[in-house]
Amino acid sequence: MELGAYVRIITKRLWIIALAVALTAGSAFVASKLQTPVYRSTVYLNVIPARMDLGLVQTVKWYMRNYAGQIQSRTTAAKVIDRLQLDITPAELAAKLTVSPIESDYLLQIDADDYDPVLAGQIAQTTAEVFSEKIDVDMLEVDKNDRLQISIRDWAEPGTLHKPNWKINTLAGALFGGLVGLLVVFILEWIEADVIRTSEDVERHTGVAVLGLIPTLSAPRARAAAPWRREGSLSTSR
């Protein structure tokens, strides 16, 4: 099928696509607005080795992955809860945390999510403080040449909106609606592919040019053009 044919098919039923886009985009927008906002606060920890040799640098990268697990542990979460006097379990607080080691920059990224933006910042900051203090104590038993220093790069700010992102959700809904609308249009076209309505349909199916058309008369005009049929029917009834 030529590109022009696809364009004609889409243009003919463009309203179906527009309706599908409006419905799905509107639904995504409303659903996003009905969700409870979740705010995220982020803090970074510097992981600095005492010396920059290859062996220690590789050890630092291994430690960073291990540290990420320790930060998200219930042991760390329990200390954070104790400091902030939160009424939640360590497992619930740990679920609010996401820790990502950034090995190329020797950083640990701590993200804290909460419905309260201020509390999200407090959780992120306190978690960073609790963990850095723990590492300082642990490093006292390590040789000075092999120690790692953990420090907070920046203080955590109150959380910013993390989800839902209504703009992205609405755009995704519109794209999905457009695909559904296109699918419906081509399914309808496939169903009606064998229906002949115009001379162009005849030429397309037979490959023969149409030279003329027989006009169709409406019912009143047809009766007026053939009065003998009415007379014949009357005589028959007698």
Describe this structure in words.
The chain has helices spanning 3-12, 14-34, 54-71, 74-84, 90-95, 117-138, 166-191, 199-206, 219-225, 227-237; strands at 38-49, 97-102, 107-114, 148-152, 160-163. 59% of the residues lie in helices and 15% in strands. The model is unreliable at 228-238 (pLDDT under 50). Strands 1, 2, 3, 4 and 5 form a five-stranded antiparallel beta sheet that branches. β2 (97-102) and β3 form a beta hairpin. α2 (14-34) runs antiparallel to α7 and α4 (74-84) crosses α6. The protein is α+β, with helices and mostly antiparallel strands and 238 residues long.
Give a brief description.
The relative contact order is 0.16. The protein has ten helices and five strands, in the order ααβαααββαββαααα.
CATH T-level topology of the largest domain = Bacterial polysaccharide co-polymerase-like
Helical region count? 10
Approximate strand percentage = 5-15%
What would you say the CATH architecture of the largest domain is?
Answer: 2-Layer Sandwich
Low-confidence stretches: 228-238
Query: At the fourth CATH level, what is the homologous superfamily of the largest domain?
Result: FepE-like
Provide the succession of SSEs: HHEHHHEEHEEHHHH
